[in-house]
Structures are given as C-alpha cells and as structure tokens.
Write a structure and sequence with these properties.
Number of domains: 2
Helix content: 40-55%
Largest sheet: 6 strands, parallel
Number of strands: 10
Strand order of the largest sheet: 4-3-1-2-9-10
CATH class of the largest domain: Alpha Beta
Shape: globular
Length: 293
Amino acid sequence: MAEIRTGQNEIRNRKRIHHVPLNRDAPIGVFDSGVGGLTVAREIMRQIPNEKIIYFGDTARVPYGNKSQETVTRFSKQIVRFLQTFQVKTIVVACNTASAYAMDALEQDCDIPIIGVVKPGARMAAEVTRNGRLGVIATEATISSRIYTQYIQELNPNVTIYGKACPLFVPLVEEGLLEDPVTDEIARRYLTELIDIDIDTLILGCTHYPLIRSTLSKIMGPNVTLVNPAYETARELRQMLEQMNLLNEDPPKLGSNRYQFYVSDKAEKFMTFANSIIKYGILSARTIHIEKY
C-alpha cells in the first residue's frame, strides 16, 4: 500500500503549496500534444461527470515525443497560460512527454494544482505486477527520460522495467488508423521483444495508445495486464478534488457550455475524430494561436 500513501501525501503537499480559491464550479484544464489526451478527458467525463472541461490539443505541433525538453517545456507553458485565461481550478497534463519533461517547471509557475499522467500509471503498475517484469511503451522522449523507471523503482526497487519507444503509434492514431493492418503490423514489430522477455504488465505510456488498446491487448495476450494511465489519472484527480474541497457536486445547468475544445490547427479534423471516440456531445472545436501565450 506504499504507493497509495505516496499519492495521498502528494495531494496533501499540493494543498499546502497552492493557494486555491474554493471555486468548485470552475472548469478543469486538460492539454495534450494532439488527440491522445482525449482518452484522459473521456475518463474525467465518465468518472467525474459534474465537472466542466477546457481541452487544448496542440495539433499544429504534434508529436512532442521527438522534441527537446526545452521545446516541450516552452510549448507546455504557453498552453498553461492559455488555460489559465479560463480561471481553471486545476490543470491535467494529459501528455506523457510533457509530464516527463515539463512538470517541474509547470508546478513552479502555477498557483493552482497540476497533475500529470505518469505517476498515477506508475503507481498502478507497481501494484498489479506479479512477476516484477514491467514493460513501458511510450514516445522516444518519455522512454529516454526514464521517468517511469524512476517512479516505479521508488515504489518497488525489486521490479525490472523494460522501456520500448513506439514513435509511429502517435501519427497512426492522429490519422485515425485505429483498426488497420498497418497499425497491427507496426504493433507486432514493436512488441515482439517485450513478449519474448515475459513481462506481465504493460504501461501504455502515451495517452494516444489507449485508442489502439484492443490491438495491443490482442498482440500481448491474456496474461499481460495493460495499465491505462488515463484511467488512473482521472481517479487520482477525483481524489485530489475531494481532498481540496473542489469537487463539483452539482450537475451543470442546462445549456451551459460544459465541454470546450481548442486546438492549434485543423479544428474540423479534430472535432470529427473527437466525436468518434467521445460520446458526450462535442459540438465544436476552435483554432487559437497558441504562440501568442
């Protein structure tokens, strides 16, 4: 249970550090390099249905996984400044690369609580593994940062973590090739070595990857547990809001602008894709010039 206590301690620390006005009705800001963060937004909608969401997808600059830490941090700071114009009560960094590269800088800049997707996923993986052999698939940047290895071994130093960069998954998902022979073939090539070393747990270390979960599950087989950090992040977010007395207990009023979506490019393409995976009524998405922030 050490990992659960760690999570609760982090929540208490956030409460001490951030001076947040108790505005339960304020929205939650969520951002990603593109469409992958919609898996996190979808889980928030499902697990915390009374919350409002402002989502930003950096579709003009996707992917983040092949960019430097300096660039990802700069992009992330711009997006956070944009989200703060909506007086959001918390920000969810729904991007593993940004969580790996930019969280420290963002936490220093923000006076509201901010949560990433890496720690919740790492905690769950450390809890569910049976043989202590964990796989992490993610972007090149996330794998190079070794951030999952760091967090998991802090919780359980006896586990072994095998990282595998899967850079083609993000563009395949962004193009909507969720169930396609090309995606199947690329996935088999990436995952073969993880199958051969007998991992029993696989972390989907990029928020795009749950959108091809059925393909990954089929290839890895029934004996490998897939950990979805999007699900775990929404669960931890709810816990954090409860601890800080910020959970919105009242359903949004009829006609309120419950979910708002913004992108840096190709709003129509984003909207079509988003409506195909989220069944909560995404009516529109707007393009904004994120470089202004």
